[in-house]
């Protein structure tokens, strides 16, 4: 994520090695691009791991964008990717939280120290064809969170 003053920055070197790029980023919104180059499998289509990374990052970004990262952190609880077609090009993934969802998440964080959401992340090839759908459960937790 982008570095912010007095905020923690989340870096995952493995993700950085994929060459994934941000296309759009705003409060509660993330659109990312996973390049085919460097992420193709043995038959020159997008590798499963690249789809998982794209879905995870597109799902987590909107949650991170609303956090006071000095107090809270994100974690992936689970992930699944459904394939619809092979992708022989770069792939984009996008997810947006509504303002109502953001309000509910922030209220839960203040009240319980934890919150969560299920992100459904459509992934499209460069022709706009839906090639996969990621379903990612994101947990947002207080640095002082205690399991109840």
Task: Write structural notes for this entry.
The chain has 148 residues and is α+β, with helices and mostly antiparallel strands. The chain has three helices and six strands; from the N terminus they run αββαββαββ. It has helices at 13-17, 48-65, 99-112; strands spanning 21-26, 29-34, 72-83, 91-96, 114-125, 130-142. Strands 1-2-4-5-6-3 form a six-stranded antiparallel β-sheet. It starts with 12 loop residues before the first helix and ends in a 6-residue tail after the last strand.
**How can the largest sheet be summarized?**
6 strands, antiparallel
How far apart are the first and last residues' alpha carbons, in Å?
30 Å
CATH fold category name = Thiol Ester Dehydrase, Chain A
Query: Which architecture would the CATH scheme give at its second level?
Result: Roll
Global mean pLDDT: 92
Instruction: Return residue spans where pLDDT drops below 50 for at least 5 consecutive residues.
Output: 1-6
């Amino acid at each position: 994520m982008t570095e912010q003053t007095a905020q923690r920055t989340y870096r995952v070197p493995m993700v950085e090695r994929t060459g994934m790029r941000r296309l759009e980023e705003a409060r509660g919104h993330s659109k990312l691009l996973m390049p085919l180059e460097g992420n193709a499998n043995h038959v020159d289509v997008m590798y499963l791991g690249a789809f998982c990374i794209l879905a995870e990052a597109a799902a987590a970004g909107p949650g991170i964008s609303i956090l006071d990262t000095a107090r809270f952190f994100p974690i992936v609880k689970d992930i699944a990717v459904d394939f619809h077609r092979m992708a022989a090009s770069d792939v984009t993934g996008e997810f947006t939280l509504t303002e109502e969802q953001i309000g509910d998440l922030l209220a839960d964080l203040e009240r319980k120290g934890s919150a969560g959401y299920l992100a459904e992340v459509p992934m499209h090839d460069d022709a706009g064809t839906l090639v996969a759908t990621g379903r990612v459960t994101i947990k947002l937790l207080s640095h002082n969170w205690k399991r109840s």
